[in-house]
Specification:
globular, disordered N terminus, 8 strands, homotetramer, Butyryl-CoA Dehydrogenase, subunit A, domain 3, alpha+beta, 432 residues, three-stranded antiparallel sheet, five-stranded mixed sheet, 2 domains, Aminopeptidase, 53% helix
């Protein structure tokens, strides 16, 4: 039997303690003297041929520190060098391939695999040897990603990095941790910084999201960079499904005694590491939190998000629907009702050129197997909410019993599952 | 600045706590109903095509549990299937290779890399997703290694496993932990079981190696299988370099006040995981322990091993030197002196067909950059010691100042560094 | 709401870590040069007048170290000196008392209190200032208690010590910790040493009591001497109430899946600190463990002991019942039945001169409010069991619903509660 | 050897974890229905006679919760009742005293001690049994202290409380913890709240005092109320003795690499618990921190405070020196020099009616054995600094080598030790 309390205790401990060495190192890094990208590429060649593991670690550390001191141009040169000089050797591939064709078999085929693996991968693995190196490589990918658009030839480097990071940030290595008001201040400082959905302005606002008994926050962390949350989710325990973020975050709201909670609301999910883009943990996180909360509060029967619809206004504009509806317009107003129907159409059926949901948040939750539960009129009347979606929000329902089936149907045929009322609304709108 | 005390604290914590879940799982595993190897290969194909990450994790867990229930024949069939059915597709390689030749460039070359990577690697990565899976994959490699001799065609599978394990057991992910008498009993139980050099018979013997202030033990552990030490080293703090293991481990010996310690003696180094053979941590461990002890006890000025010479008797026999010398023969006896000279020749200059030191322990320490310091007449008069080496032992010296240079000279030219007295002894013997 | 998981985590941590400093100190103590009891009494006077707190702490530490080096005679002299020289000053009492009588009031009465407090108490409080001193004072009381019989005049010193220890070992300061197979080896070593009821011969036997999922062990510890368990209880989770310790501890017994457990059996309770005799934690421990287990395993419906009847044979002898009945005599044999009836009479109604149950174990459990549930024929056929009670054991039932009422009835009127079958047995035997 | 790192690790852990249960309880307390002081006194009598320890604990918990709901008048009534009804019984004292006089001896004297101990003390000990009760009793004393001036008859109650708290907050039970930027946010929130000397306005200001490598903060905590710091000290590591708090706390100051630090400056010491007034830990804290820093940074050679002179302006006024000198007046200005000489006179020789230093901060540090090192002209130009002391501050030097001797001389003869330059200044001023 897994004992979640001990797991939690462990996670708390890991992350309370590993931080100091990691931080120390970054300070040291800043002090590294600048060397140019070409010298760095020479160091990279040395790292690859170094036979002493322990010297190799020192060399790798220095390389990462020097990398951190490069300017934009230096980084580009360095990336180009990695792509060019650390690619597989075509002659070696050719020779291995001919050998295979002459004598096909598992061993000769394995020789082709070896010849085709870029030395870059081994280089990156060696760069990952020193303490705290993993965070540096995540940072390196964060530097690289924005360059891909203008320098598509860097794609192989990015591919190798993603390949390795996916292996290192394996689900089995991630650790779920509850973040609360007794968490370390430096970790909380990062939560404030990384909150991407409903921003946190002050420590008092943060406390309001962590301290009340009807509020929770969970993050995934990785043992090799424990100071850095990878992704976190904020949860509200409610008596019923909430329709607006204003109510949820009102400073003067009443705290709900947890024994009256029936609904867990995921009201904010933030990815923290630009360098881990595309290496997704989100669905693992939500599923794990649903399971943990179910165990802790058996009375919870509904797990739901309160989500933004970031692309709605842009899409409405593309449909010629451009007018601002006032925040105090009641949901029963015909104009509100028409807008809700349009929003339902957007969330449920607008697709991008890959036939995926156009809205990125919808794409994520529907891909997880959630269903569209309800549209929330004026669910977010903040400036950002009004600008993105005219104030509309949406609840996605996470029902463990149907999650996998929904996910399968979505993955195989693009089927979007929705509350019957919404499907009906959509049909009526279509037939109108 | 790294703060080793906090690091230590963390390690203690990680390993005090993670154990319960891990143990729980193994219990569960035993209960898995048996399925045959072919069904398991079918599951493996499902794991590869599963698009839902979270379903994939469940499937992977079940696969590992079923694997654990296979018998020897089933395992062989399963390994053969993995080698055969999850190899790269030669047609895809051919096609990617032709595309590259038609239009050479980083992107078309990266496509060759992709085509040549065995799907097996992705399968193994996915198998590593569930909690505690890493230990299962280490176990799987432990099952596989002994089969290679009779089934060389399994080598590509072994290569893929080693490739991934090397990435996952990266130095940056390992954690050094001091093992002492307040360590968890279940961890200590494993230390007893894994001690490979000077076996530990009882808990009282174990306590004698852990509790006294002049004794230390350090292990590397990995966050994904924290219950299992990977490798550990036992250390004695001494006033001078010891010449025999009997003295070091005498039950009635006097404890040395640590402020009188000048020499740290590594008297036993044990690898614990058969499944991690060839993925070496040993030199990292010794180097780290040397650094940590230097910091803790600035008065230490000598770091040395007291090592067995496991191949000596066999080599002596090959030289026609077969007689047993009695343990009470003084080192000054001409026969003892002749034997010491021969042992020096064996340790310093006997080579295998790859021109590496013939003795495996010598190979390890010389490869690390240690130098041969002294031969110890009747250093180990246990039955095992007499049988392996006629009672001879050897001290290898770890001198941080010369370690890298020695290592380089050894790696480049096979140069073996030794104490001048030993080199002289060797020259005299040669000229005799 | 208390969160027991975090409490547990804390306890684990406290006791994993505090040990080193404590142990260090004891080592130091051994090295203290011997001084005689009179010099120690002089030091005691210095401790009392020392105005510098921090000098006082050093002085107190040295006093405790010197105390530890005293021989038996020295200790007696020292105790006599403490009793004689650090008693309240009768003249001061007289004067305070006259002042009170002249002008009765809260302030003049408080002055009497101050005059009547022995300076010894302040001395003992100051001796408790240095790190790890608490364990030394517990040890001092352990030295003192056996002397009281022959030196009744030492009672006031004992009274002062007990007074302070009762305050320091307050329930609010005690911490419950689960002891398991991943607990620190040095703590487990003490469990082996302190087990008073069914002795533990080897580490393997200990593991059999800690590792199986249907076995538990809990201890109270104190933050000021965390290396030392104060009291611990061993628990078996069973499908039904067990009637013999042989079955419970059989090396080849089947482990019970915990979801089938209905009964928690307290089969061994050991006080660990002779110096804390009479400062009882036992009932707190049992009550807390009952509550914790109820929360963890809601299916448990019965909490029961399997207890020895240590005084039975002696009492039987006093009743002229002296014969040994063979262990293989069935419980249905008339001789066995007669013996069971006598045992019931002993447990339920034999009283000492203070009208308390004659059997010390009965006294403890009945005082806690437990009821006598069942007598177990040949429940303990070990040499010790046969010698103490002719093999008989007894189950006491802890029913939270009636515990307080039973306790009240017992405390007020000496009423012993028993299972109706036992009460009937007793009546029948009486009328026979 | 004590291993301070393990101690630190422990402390971190204790205080990271124990908090949840404690906080939980306080929430519960708020919900207790109000009962009046007389009913509470009745409960108190029940607590005293309750023979069941575990019922007693529940009753005590309820009493404390009800106490927390009392208003000012209720509290006064309750305190008066405790003083009146739980005093020792004069008749019992008289009788014990007569028995002693009739037959003097240790036992009859001990009976007097027993008779003279107020039942109130036993009541308070029992109130301390439930979890988290200690904090409640500290709170109760905080409520009581301000009432003493107008209700001097409550003194015996206060005396009993102080007596017990002194025993429970024994130096041996206190734990030193480093507070840093990775400490739990709720603990840091309290540091902000309790900072009494140089107030902390925001979390950013707090970070500036905790995060830089040349800043430290240490607190004493107690295992029974781990959420609450008892006292804390803020430390700056400097290259030389600083003369102004402005420089020390300047937001844009340069961080000092710790290897260049020679001076540790205690620039703020705050007692946190009003209910522990007079139960002093301050000198233990400073001495311990001096020792710990010495070990961690062997290059530190000077330990010094930068302290306010809170009573200076008032005393100057009493001397007819009332004018405000401008903050930008140079220290070399004759008016500044005259003021410095007066301040020296105040700090070194102004006495209260008990012949103790008039300035409370001087009293504390001189009592600890520190010497007056230097007066700092315009060391604190904040509004508070100018108002209290016209901007003057003072450095007190903590020199472990002379601390005890200074303390002795001060305690015995009131001798104030000062830097020779200051003593000379004083003599010159006196002879002027």
């Amino acid at each position: 039997m897994l004992r979640p309390d001990r797991m939690t205790a462990l996670l708390d401990l890991v992350f309370d303690r590993l931080r100091a060495p990691w931080r120390g190192r970054r300070r040291a890094r800043a002090a590294s003297p600048a060397i140019d990208a070409d010298s760095l590429l020479t160091m990279a060649r040395d790292v690859l041929v170094e036979r002493s593991q322990s010297s190799g670690v020192g060399l790798a550390r220095r390389m990462l520190d020097h990398y951190a001191a490069l300017d934009d141009a230096g980084r580009l040169t360095f990336f180009e060098g990695l792509t060019r000089d650390f690619a597989p050797d075509p002659a070696a591939i050719e020779s291995a391939w001919q050998a295979y064709r002459a004598d096909p078999g598992p061993l000769s085929l394995a020789a082709v695999t070896r010849a085709a693996e870029p030395p870059r991968q081994e280089l990156l693995r060696r760069l990952n040897q020193p303490p705290a190196a993993t965070a540096d490589l995540v940072g390196l990918r964060a530097d690289l990603l924005p360059l891909l658009r203008d320098h598509p030839a860097l794609a192989p480097l990015e591919e190798d990095l993603a390949h390795l990071l996916r292996s290192w940030f394996n689900r089995g290595f991630l650790m779920l941790r509850r973040i609360d008001w007794s968490s370390p201040a430096d970790l909380l400082e990062r939560i404030i910084r990384y909150e991407a959905v409903h921003s946190i302005g002050t420590w008092v606002e943060l406390r309001d999201r962590l301290l009340p008994q009807d509020r929770r926050c969970y993050a995934f962390l990785h043992p090799a960079m424990p100071e850095e949350p990878l992704i976190f989710v904020e949860v509200a325990l409610c008596a019923e499904i909430p329709g607006s973020i204003q109510t949820l975050l009102a400073p003067d709201r009443e705290e709900l005694p947890v024994d009256q909670a029936r609904v867990a609301v995921f009201y904010s999910i933030s990815n923290c590491q630009a360098g881990l883009a595309g290496i997704s943990f989100g669905r693992f996180l939500i599923k794990q939190v649903v399971e943990d909360l179910s165990r802790e509060f058996p009375a919870l029967d509904t797990f739901v998000t309160l989500s933004p619809i970031p692309g709605l206004r842009r899409w409405l504009a593309s449909q010629g629907e451009d007018d601002d509806l006032p925040p105090d317009l009641p949901a029963t107003d015909p104009r509100a009702k028409a807008r809700i129907a349009l929003a339902a159409r957007y969330v449920l059926s607008a697709k991008d050129r890959h036939e995926r949901p156009l809205d990125p948040v919808a794409r994520f939750h529907l891909g997880n197997g959630a269903r569209v539960e309800r549209l929330c009129w004026m669910g977010d009347t903040s400036a950002k909410g009004l600008a993105q979606s005219g104030g509309m929000m949406v609840n996605y329902l996470y029902d463990l019993a149907t999650l996998e089936a929904n996910h399968e149907a979505f993955a195989r045929e693009g089927t979007v599952t929705a509350h019957p009322a919404l499907s009906r609304l959509l049909r009526e709108a279509a037939s109108a």
